[in-house]
Amino acid sequence: MNPPVNPLVKHEEKEIPLSLTLGELNVVLEALGNLPYVRVYELIGKLHEQASSVLSPKEPE
Fold first, then answer.
1. Whole-angstrom Cα distance, residue 32 to residue 43?
2. pTM of the model
3. Tens place of pLDDT for every residue, the chain, 61 residues?
4. CB 6, CB 25: distance < 8 Å
5. Distance (Å) of CA 19 to CA 22, 29, 50, 59
6. How far apart are CA 49 and CA 42, in angstroms?
7. How far apart are CA 34 and CA 40, in angstroms?
C-alpha cells in the first residue's frame, strides 16, 4: 500500500505572496534563527531582500 501523498509537496516551488508587519517578520526571523543555518540562510536572505525593497526609499529615475 502506498503512503498518503502530501498535496503541499507537489506545489513546493510555487510562490505565495505574504503580507506581514515588521513585528511579525521579526518573530519569523527569530524563529528561523533557532534552526540550523544551512536550512534557513537562503530563506532569511530572501526575506531580508524583500523587506529591504519595501522599507528602502526608491531612487528617482
1. 9
2. 0.70
3. 666 666 666 677 888 899 999 999 999 999 999 999 999 999 999 999 999 999 887 766 6
4. no
5. 10, 14, 11, 23
6. 10
7. 10
